[in-house]
């Protein structure tokens, strides 16, 4: 991205060139500063900052800054480097956090909003008709399934979550038209999850996969939310894929909440009041 800005310098207006040089001199600061501060530093107007972003092919300043932050994060020294036994605690912290941030930004830039829209619409429709919503996962993905159940339950969406393969197959057998199941797997090759997806789909339920692109599970489900982050299986490999899956569940839950809309408000308020009373009494 920075190379492209450098190559575009001669074709930019003089004021926009000042913005471009500000980006090139300190891309990290540009990605996080408000437009007023950016305009002051470049000695231009705020509209000029926005025009520069659009001349570079982005929708506006927000879109430009988001892509710039991703480019900068993917270029920091520790990205995609594994933790090893010689690392200091400060090295470990930077490597683990920066790898997670890079994975999130890569997902943001590559995610299919069409697939997210389809998944959110399917879950909201299932909730509105009172049908079953279930979350399946194995191992670390089982933890994500339980987290998903918790997040959706707080929206007033009753669901079931299980990480047991036998339970998944039995539960999928009871699903039918109008029901919805979200299946979470990093590899997308777990036998029990594949069986459960196949059974649920044959029974007429909507199947949603959060898994790697090109995996058998991705092909077996009607809706695929791509989560592409291969894990290293050495001793010190951070579980970035689990964090990525949790992020996708957050996005999905938020989209569903917006679709359910005002009907949620009374239940959410009552839930907050009950939890607050339980937590702080005595």
From TrEMBL:
<dbReference type="Pfam" id="PF01418">
    <property type="entry name" value="HTH_6"/>
</dbReference>
<dbReference type="InterPro" id="IPR035472">
    <property type="entry name" value="RpiR-like_SIS"/>
</dbReference>
<protein>
    <submittedName>
        <fullName>MurR/RpiR family transcriptional regulator</fullName>
    </submittedName>
</protein>
<dbReference type="Pfam" id="PF01380">
    <property type="entry name" value="SIS"/>
</dbReference>
<dbReference type="InterPro" id="IPR000281">
    <property type="entry name" value="HTH_RpiR"/>
</dbReference>
<keyword id="KW-0805">Transcription regulation</keyword>
<dbReference type="InterPro" id="IPR009057">
    <property type="entry name" value="Homeodomain-like_sf"/>
</dbReference>
<feature type="domain" description="SIS">
    <location>
        <begin position="123"/>
        <end position="262"/>
    </location>
</feature>
<dbReference type="InterPro" id="IPR047640">
    <property type="entry name" value="RpiR-like"/>
</dbReference>
<keyword id="KW-0804">Transcription</keyword>
<feature type="domain" description="HTH rpiR-type">
    <location>
        <begin position="1"/>
        <end position="75"/>
    </location>
</feature>
<dbReference type="InterPro" id="IPR036388">
    <property type="entry name" value="WH-like_DNA-bd_sf"/>
</dbReference>
<dbReference type="InterPro" id="IPR001347">
    <property type="entry name" value="SIS_dom"/>
</dbReference>
<keyword id="KW-0238">DNA-binding</keyword>
<dbReference type="InterPro" id="IPR046348">
    <property type="entry name" value="SIS_dom_sf"/>
</dbReference>
<keyword id="KW-0324">Glycolysis</keyword>
